[in-house]
Amino acid sequence: MAGKDYLVVVAIDIGSSFSGYAYKFRTDDPKNQTMGIMCPQWISSNNKASGKTASSLLLNPDGSFNSFGFDAEDVYNEMWRKYHDEEFHHEKFPGKLPKDWFLFKNFKMELYGKEIMRRSMRIKDETGKSFSLRAVFKESIRFLKEHALGAITRQEDVFPTDVFWVLTIPSIWSEPAKQFMRKAAEEAGILGESLTLALEPEAAALFTKEQELIRHTEEERVKLVPFVPNSKFMVVDLGGGTGDITVYEVQDNHTLHEINMATGGAWGGNRINDAFLGIWKDILQNEFKECFQTHPEEGLELQQNFETKKRSTGERTGREFLVIALPECLRRIPEYKRKLEGSTKYPGIQVRRGKVEFPLQMIQDLFKESIRDITSQISHLLLINSVDAIILVGGLSESTLVFKSIKDSFESSVKVLNPPECGLSVLKGAVLFGFKPQQISKRVSRYSYGFSISKPFDPVLHNNERDRVHKYYDNLEDVFSAIVRAGDSVLPNEVRDYKCRPAEHGPEFSLVEFYATQDCNPKYVKEPESFFPECCCHHIGDIKIEHGRRDNLENNEINVQVVFGFTQLDVTAECTISGMRRQDQKTFIGGVCVRLYNTEVLLINERQMAAQNFQVVVAIDIGSAFSGYAYKFRTDNKKDYTKKIICPIWRNNSNMACGKTSSSLLLNPDGTFNSFGFNAEDVYTAMCRKFIAGSFHDDKFPAKDPKDWYLFRNFKMELYEKEIMQKDMKIKDTTGKPFSMRTVFRESIAFFKKHALNAITRQTTVLPSDVFWVLTIPAIWSEPAKQFMRTAAEEAGIPAESLILALEPEAAALFTKDQELIRQSKDGKVNLVPFVPKSKFMVVDLGGGTGDITVHEVQDDHTLHEINMATGGPWGGNRINEAFLGIWKDILQNEYLECSKNFPDEILELQQNFERQKRNIGEETQKQYLFIRLPECLREVDDIKAKLQGSKKYSGIRYARGKVEFPLQMIEDLFKEPIRDITNQISKLIKNNAVDAIILAGGFSESTFVYKSIKNSFESSVIVLSPPECSLSVLKGAVLYGFHPEQISKRVSRYSYGFSISKPFDPVLHCSGRDTIHKYNDKLEDVFLPIVRAGDSVLPNEMREYKCRPADFCSNFALVEFYGTLDKDPKYVNDPELFIPEIPCKHIGDIKVEYGDKSNLDNNEILVKVVFGFTQLSVSAECSIAGEKKQVNAHFELLK
Q1: Of 3, 329, 807, 1091, which sees the most CB atoms within 10 A?
Q2: Count of CB atoms within 10 A of residue 1193's CB?
Q3: What is the DSSP string of 247-262?
Q4: Rounded to the nearest 5°, which phi and psi values hold at 659?
C-alpha cells in the first residue's frame, strides 16, 4: 500500500558515518513533492550540527540498548573520563568498567560486498569484542523509529499505525543484505506490511528530479525548471562508506527509467578519515596506538574533529592550515611537538597552543585516491551514456574539494550540480518513494538470477575441461539457468517463470535453491577452485514453497514466479493439488520476500497566490547572534506559499552547519570590509594565532597587528530601546575601539546583498533590478531604530523603492499560519491543517538578543489581525551566554580579563563552543556534565584546576585532561531568569487573550530546555508548538511578507504618536504642580496631542491628520516636531526633571515638509497626514498655494 491511507511517511537511513530520519505528512505539499519534508537537527558535544547523527551505537554490558548517535559517543567518552579520574561507577552494572560496554561505529560497511549472509553473523566493537550484527542493526533502527515517533506525536494525535516506513539501502547491495535489513527492521518493531526498502541513488534521483536545477529559455525569458521528459541525469551518491552511481531518464509521464545497472565501490568519506589517522600512525607509531587503547574517548574526539572539518577543505578562505585540537593523551607523549613538526614524510605540520596545524595541501592530498576512483567510474559511464547533468548527493558530496574536482573534470562536456540539501537528498527522496514507489518505472538488474539445472551432455558443445568437470553420467550438472541477466531492464511487477521439481522437500514445504552472480553470462552455479570465474556465482538462499501436506500434491512440479522491477525481489509459486492449480505461500530463506504496493497519495489544493512584478524576493535578517538571508522566485510563489524558500547553508571552521551565520563583522584597520560571519571569526582567530607565534604579516597593512582590525559581534542589541538616535552614533568593537555604527550595519547588509545576488544570478539571468528586498526588525523597536536600518540598507546599495521592513514576529506568524500544525478530525479521519479563520495564536519570537511576543487572529480571508501591541525584552540566548562567561569571571577574576585581552581568539572559541552546545541542554540523556575544552590561555593560569574545582559559589565543577566539566544543573540554572521573564509575559497576555496555540520561533526557541519549560508552564491550558524550521521562521516568513504585505491586515500601535500643541489654561482642570510648570501666560504649553495611542488598532494605510503652523519655517521647508511614547495617555511632550513620568515622552524626530519657495504659500498652515498600519510610519503633507491645496513632499527625519 505504500503511503496511501497513512498519515505520515518516515524514512530511516542507517549510513556508514551518519544516520537519521525524515518524515512528511500526507496532507503536506500536494503539488511540490520535495517540500514539507522534515529532518531533525542533531548536535554533538563537540558542536557538530547536521540533519543526521553519528552512526554510533552504545550497548550495555548485557547487550541492552544504551544510546545512539552523538549521544552514544558522548556517554562513552564521559564514562572513560570518569574511569581515568577514578570516579567511574555504574549503579546498574556495578562490577563493570567502560571497556565492558559495546561501542559500534561505521557498522554499515559490514554488509558491503556480502553475497552470502548468515543469521548468526558477528561484528566486533571498537575494542574488539564480538556481538550479533543483526542486533546492532535492530537496535539502531529501533532508536530512530522511536525518536521519529516521539517527534511526530509530540503535539499531534498520530498513532504508530498511521506511519509508513521506508528503509534506505545502497543499490549495490546483494539480495541477502537487503533481507537482512528488512528482518532487522521487523525485529525493531516495524510491521512488514508498513515497510518498504528504497535504493539510495533512486531516492536521491526522485528528490533531484523535482527540483528546479536546469536552465530553460522560453520566449526569451530564462528560468530554472526540473528535468524535462527525455532528459538523462547521473546520480553520484557519495556517502561515508560507499559511492553508488546510476543513470536515469525522465519519461513522458515524469517517472524514471534506470538506464544502467548501479555501480559503485568503497569510495566514501571514511576512506579520507582513515588516511588522516594514517598520518598520526606513521609519525607516532606505537605511541599513537597505545594512547587510544588507553584513552579511546580521546581518539574518538580526534576522529569527530576531523570528520566535521574535512568538508570545508577546498573552500576559498584566508586559511592555510586545517587546525585540529591536540588530544590530551598525545600531548603527554615525550617530544610530541618535535615528532610532529620534524616528520620528513609529512613536512609543514606545526604545533601551536594546543592545536596541530596541517597544511591544507596535505589534507587535500588525502582525497585524491577516492576522487580518482569516482571520476574514473563516471568517465566509464559517460562513454556509454550521454547525460544532461551529473548530480552529486550524499554527505561526501558536500565536500567543496570533491565537488570542485568532479566539476573541473567534466564541466566542459556536462553540467555538474550539487543541489541544495545534497547531504539529505537520499533521506528526503526516500520519503517521496514511500508515497509513490511507482515513480521508478524501470530498473536494470545488477545481478543475473537463476536456478541450477541439469541438461544432456554434448561432447561437441561441451568440449573443454571446465565442462567435463560438470559431467555426471550423460548429463551436465550445476548449469546456471538464468531467468534474468545482469544488465537486463525490468519493469515493476515483471514476472519470470521457472518450472522445477525440487529435490529437497519437507512435510509441508519444498526448497528451491536460488543463485546470483554479477556475471551477465554465467555458465555454472558452482565451480571447483581451479575454474573459479572472475565473477563467482553464489547460492544466495532458497525459495521456500509452503504447499501444505506433500501427499496432496499430484506431482512434484512447481511453477516458481520471481517478480522483478522493485527494490527487492518477490516470488510466488503454483502447484497442482487434487487437479486444481493453486497459488502457494512462498518466502526466501537467506533471500528476500517483500511486496511493494503502487498507490496514489491523497493531495489537497492550496490557494493560488497572486504574482508580483519582481522576479525574486530576498529577506535579510541581521540577528543579535546569527544572521542570514532567504529568497524565493516569483514563479515558485503561485501555489506553494511556505515552500521553495531557499536558505544557504553556512559552515564555520568546526563545521557547524545551519541556516544562518554568526553576526560577526571584521573590518580592516582602515575601516574597509574584510569578512562576515563564521569566516570573519575564523580569519580573526587565524591572525591572532599567527601573531602569537610571531609569524603574522599582512601585505596590505604591513605595519599593523591583529588588534588594529575591528571585530564586531552581537551588535544588533545596540539598537534595542533606542528611542532617540543620532546619525553619527558609535559602537565599540570586541577590543573597545569605537567605530561608526551605521557603517557596521551598512557593511553587514551589503555583504548579504552581494552574497544573495551571487547565489541568485549564478544560474539565472535575473538582474539586481528584478529583486525586491525585505529587511527584518524586532517589533519592539522604535521608529528611529527602524529608519536607521532602512538608511543603512539604502547606503548598502538597496534602492528605497525595492525595500520594505518586516516585523520579526509578524514574519514568523505568516510562516506559521499556513503550516499544517493543528489536528482536525473529519469523517473519522485525522488530518493536520493550518490555523482556521477565527483561531488565535501567540508568536513568541526568541532570538539571540530579544524576545518579541504578539497575538494574531486569522480572518475569514486568511489575513492576520494583530490583537495586542508587541511586547518583549532582552530575553534572548545571549543572556545565557553572558551568564556562562560570568562563571569564569567570578572564579578567575582579573586573570580571565587578561586572557580576554591577550588571547581574544581563544576566548572567542570558548564562546563559540558554549553557544553551540547550549541548545541541547534539557534533552534526555545519560550525560551529567557539559564539557568545554579549556582554552590554552586559561590552561596557563596558575593553579587553574584548584581554582575551578575549589569554587564555593559554583560547586561541582571538575577539570580533567584539558576539559572543564560543568554540572548540567548549573548550566540549566543559567536559563531560569530569562525563562521566568518570558513565561511571566506570556501569562499576562493569556489573561487578556484566549489563544489556541503558543508558537515558539527564533533561534533561542530551538533550546530543548526553553521549549520544555514553556510547554510545562502552559500545556494544561494551551498547545505549545515549536514548528519545523522555527529558527528560520522569521527569515522565511519575511520572504512571504515581501510577496504579500497585505497579509497583515490590522496592527496594534506600540507607541502613542503625536505633536506638541498649546491650549487654553483652565485653573480648575489644570491644578497640579506639573500643570502649573507648563503654564505660559494664558496657555498650557507642550501638551501632547496624540494622533494615535499605544494599544490602538490601525488598518494598513490608515491616515491621521494634523493641521499646524510650524514655528520652524525656512525658505523652502518647515520642520514639524514629532513625538512618541509607550504611555497610552501622555499629557506633555516634555517635563522638568521633578515631574518626569514613569514612561516619558521623547522627541523622536521631525517631519520635514518641502514646499519650495516660501513666498508662494498662502499662509503658514500645513496639513500633515501620518499613515499608520504598516511596519514603518509614512507621512504626506498639503499646503495652500495660490488658492489651491497642493500635495508637497514630506518625510520623517528621525536620525538627529
Answers
A1: 807
A2: 12
A3: EEEE-TTS-EEE-S--
A4: -80, 0
Give domain limits for the chain.
1-211+424-436, 218-318+361-418, 443-589, 616-823, 878-973, 1053-1197
Render pLDDT for 792-832 as a digit per residue (tens, 0 to 9): 999 999 988 889 999 888 888 888 887 777 666 665 555 56
350-352 and 355-359: which strand pairing?
Answer: antiparallel
817-845: buried (b, 16+ CB within 10 Å) or exposed (e) per residue?
bbbbbbeeeeeeeebbebbeeeebbbbbb
Given a contact cutoff of 8 angstroms between Cβ atoms, the answer to whether 1145 and 1123 are in contact is yes
Question: Cα separation of 372 and 386, whole Å?
Answer: 21
Give the span between the Cα atoms of 476 and 473, in whole angstroms: 8
What is the separation, in whole angstroms, between the first and last Cα of the chain?
Answer: 68
Nearest to 550 by CA among 508, 500, 609: 508
1102, three cell numbers: 490608515
Instruction: Give residue 935's pLDDT.
Output: 87
Residue of 16, 283, 38 whose CA lies nearest to 168: 16
The grid cell for 949 is 574545582
SS3 828: coil
CB neighbours of residue 1078 within 10 Å: 22
- What values do phi and psi take at 1031, rounded to 5? -75, -20
- Confidence at residue 825, expressed as pLDDT on a 0 to 100 scale: 62
pLDDT range class, residue 610, cuts 50, 70, 90 = very low
Question: In the CATH scheme, what architecture does the domain 1-211+424-436 have?
Answer: 2-Layer Sandwich (3.30)
Distance of CA 1119 to the CA centre of its chain: 50
Cα–Cα distance, 408 to 406 (Å, whole number): 5
Give dist(CA 421, CA 418) in Å, integer.
9
Whether 901 contacts 964, CB under 8 Å: no
Cell (9 digits) for 892: 578567575
How many Cβ atoms from other residues are within 10 Å of residue 627's Cβ?
Answer: 26
- Cβ atoms of 981 and 989 within 8 Å: the answer is no
**CATH code for the part of the protein at 443-589:** 2.60.34
pTM above 0.70, yes or no: no
Q: Record the cell numbers describing residue 265, joined without a space.
A: 565501490
d(CA 146, CA 142): 6
Q: Please give the radius of gyration of the chain, using alpha carbons only, rounded to the nearest integer.
A: 35
β-bridge mates for residue 456, sequence order: 475
CB contact at 8 A, 928 and 967: yes
Q: Which of 54-63, 219-228, 841-850, 867-876 reaches the highest mean pLDDT?
A: 54-63
**Residue type present at position 902:** N
Please give the pLDDT value at position 795.
Answer: 93
CATH topology assigned to domain 218-318+361-418: Nucleotidyltransferase; domain 5 (3.30.420)
What's the farthest any 2 CA atoms get from each other in the chain?
A: 134
Strand, coil or helix: 187: helix
Could you check whether 218-318+361-418 and 616-823 share the same CATH topology? Answer: yes
> Mean pLDDT over all residues of the chain?
83
Where does residue 581 rank: exposed (0-12), middle (13-18), buried (19+ CB within 10 A)?
exposed
pLDDT of residue 216: 60
Distance CA 770, CA 760 (A): 11
Q: Give start and end residues of each alpha helix (H) in 111-211.
A: 133-153, 175-187, 200-209
